[in-house]
Amino acid sequence: MISVGLGFKRGTCCSDMLSAIDAVLASRSLRRQDIDILATASFKKGSAGLNAAAENLGIAVRYFDSERLAAMNGRLATRSSHSLRHTGTECLCEAAALSALDDDGLLVCPRQIIGPVTCAIAEGLPS
Q1: How many Cα atoms are found within 13 Å in the side-chain-facing hemisphere of 38?
Q2: In sequence order, what DSSP letters do the residues of the chain get, joined into one string?
Q3: CA–CA separation, 6 vs 50, rounded Å?
Q4: What are phi and psi of 125, to 5 degrees?
Q5: C-alpha atoms less than 13 angstroms from C-alpha of 125 in its C-beta half-sphere
Q6: Other beta carbons within 10 Å of 107
Q7: Can you tell me the distance from the alpha carbon of 12 to that of 74, in angstroms, rounded to the nearest whole number?
Q8: What is the DSSP string of 9-26?
Q9: 127 pLDDT exceeds 80?
Q10: Which pTM does this prediction carry?
Q11: How many C-beta neighbours within 10 Å does residue 51 have?
Q12: Which tens digits make up the pLDDT trace of 19-55?
């Protein structure tokens, strides 16, 4: 299973989300069809851009609370004090990607920043 974790600024549009997702996928020779799930923080629920991107891709979004995201901190490749201060995790996109998978899930693409979006890819069995 492939999970794409996302962080983004409020108001980010669908096209920016899809461009960022495409860029991170291309960096790993993956395609949109390879994604099984999008993942992000619970406080991102209601984002029109994210909902439209998920609909465009034909996949679901899983939302994780700050406790679950923070539990991933020891497994992340990126350490951001800004992210920690605002989200409770050292890297929202990496933590979200890993949260969608079981404990053996692996981060296969650490955070990439593409415009207003951060993306990471993890692979493993679903949680």
Answers
A1: 31
A2: -EEEEEEE-TT--HHHHHHHHHHHHHTTT--GGG--EEEEEGGGTT-HHHHHHHHHHT--EEEE-HHHHHTTGGG-S---HHHHHHHSSS-HHHHHHHHTB-TT-EEEEEEEEETTEEEEEEES-B-
A3: 9
A4: -90, 150
A5: 3
A6: 24
A7: 29
A8: -TT--HHHHHHHHHHHHH
A9: no
A10: 0.95
A11: 14
A12: 999 999 999 999 999 999 999 999 999 999 999 999 9
2, two tokens? 């492939």
Q: What is the 3-state secondary structure (H, E, C) of 35-54?
A: CCEEEEEHHHCCCHHHHHHH
What integer pLDDT is reported at residue 104 of this predicted model? Answer: 87
pLDDT at 12 over 80: yes
Q: Tell me which residue has tokens 């960096």.
A: 27
pLDDT tens digits for 55-89?
999 999 999 999 999 999 999 999 999 888 888 89
